[in-house]
Amino acid sequence: MEAPKPRKRPLVKSDDRLLAFGNQLIEVHLWLREELAELREGVDAYFAGGARLRELRTHCLTFCSALTRHHTGEDDGAFPQVAERFPELRPVLEELRRDHRLVDDSLRRLEVLVAELDQETDPAEVRREVDSLAALMETHFVYEEKRIVSALNALNVPGWDRSTPAFLLTDDAED
What we know:
Elements: E1 13-14, E2 17-18, H1 21-47, H2 53-85, H3 90-115, H4 123-154, H5 158-162
Antiparallel strand pairs: 1-2
Helix pairs in contact: 1-2, 1-4, 2-3, 3-4
């Protein structure tokens, strides 16, 4: 199993302006889903004897870091902008922040499981945590996409034109 291939460039660009921040959010969510699917495949391959533990741990840390950066970027950057422009969405944003805390708890549990992973580890426990995280992510992403994509698409944040905001990055490099 190979480590994920990072992508640093903005996802959508035209006339030197990042376009449709909400549409980019959907693309980031798709990328995160793909990364989780690769992580799940790596876990299965490890327990089948076909994946190296070091690569699995590296992928887990990379994925967990990317998802954490994405949610932190939303909490600290995107959500305040949305709340300022669309105050009626503040209850939705608070619900999304609660989801972020649940996802963060699941990520911590998964990181511990993978860090302590060996051939004696119960594969079902690791798979349950990956499945739990996948379910949390999916319900969170779908809710977020339904509720705030149009608001994000309506935003014009000049700083986001010059430097891709953290919630839209798809690797660990700084923009």
